[in-house]
Amino acid sequence: MFEEMRRRWSVVPTWIKVVPVAMLLAGLSLAHWLLLPLRPDLSALVQRLFFLPLFMASLLFGLKGGLICAALICLNYLDFFSLPSSGRAAAFLVVLEILLYFFTGALTGFLVDRERREARRLKEAENLALLGQAAAAVAHELKTPLIAIGGFAQRIQRDLEPDHPYRNQLKIIVDQVSHMETLLRQMLDYTRPLDLRLVPVELAALVQEVFTLTESMAKQRAVRLAEELDGKGLMVPADAGRLKQVLINLVQNAVQASPRGGVVVVRAVVEREHIAVEVMDEGPGIALEEQEKIFFPFFTTKRGGTGLGLAITRKNVLAHKGRLEVRSTPGKGSVFRVVLPRADGSTV
After folding, report:
1. What is the pTM assigned to this prediction?
2. Staple 113 to which of 30, 62, 261, 307, CB 3.0 to 4.6 Å?
3. What confidence category does residue 24 fall into, taking pLDDT thresholds of 50, 70 and 90?
4. Where do you find CATH 3.30.565.10 in the chain?
5. What is the pLDDT of residues 229-276, one digit of tens each?
6. What is the third-level CATH fold of 199-341?
7. Rounded to an integer, what distance in angstroms lies between the CA atom of residue 115 and that of residue 70?
8. Closest-CA residue to 279 (of 317, 238, 239)
9. Whole-angstrom Cα distance, residue 29 to residue 32?
């Protein structure tokens, strides 16, 4: 019942929510100014009632609404500081009351915003779980017929003469089937539980393997690969295959984002009990509103992308009890950070 009420209230236009708060605030302000010279005792009661619109604004609009309403309420106290008869003790009480308005609005608004973020996160997690189940079922059903289609198309393509008019069309079929097989494989990888075999892995050696596997792609795009690990024997407990997959995906994304002549740098930063592996590019960067969405399944900004690469990468990192972070400035490139716990015996 409460979820249904929340859903219906969320579609109400903002101005309809603002009107009752504004009317209540205006009415109390008018009462305050009329009663102040005549009945100071009743004026003090009206001042207590200012908490009503303050709570309403905080509950409806969160932190921003609470602070704005507190600022509007405090306008009613400006005349007090202009009175010559106001003593130091009275001024202290007024300042304390003003601070109380701001504190109440900020605290209530902060809690409301946090509850909304948590509700939104849980809803997204629920949707992703349902999406994962549906994707796994669809991928399982489509995998076998796609393999058959691709296999027959490749056989027909091999049997055709080089100048056959249908050869190019068959190549398109083979390429598209291959793309769909890759998508299905990624969907299954995302939905399957991970079984990690953690052993101490030396980062320098792993990064060299990653560079060897991505060097061809980097040369095609005229992008240089560089590492700043200094060969210090930094170790992390990891599944070598899964961590290699993480770094390959991040390096490939960085190469694709970089301009011709750019440099992709992989470096390690020691942070007490953790080691952060950073992959830096010189690309166009990622807009702020997209920096959280890029880790969601099927969200992509690349033409022809599946939107599953970073989602799988993040899942692998979380399985290692680490975290995947992004820092990006539009026009200045991006930095993806894989933060992992250090293995015993790491040297700095």
Report:
1. 0.57
2. 62
3. confident
4. 199-341
5. 765 678 889 888 889 989 999 999 999 989 999 999 999 888 878 889
6. Heat Shock Protein 90 (3.30.565)
7. 21
8. 317
9. 5
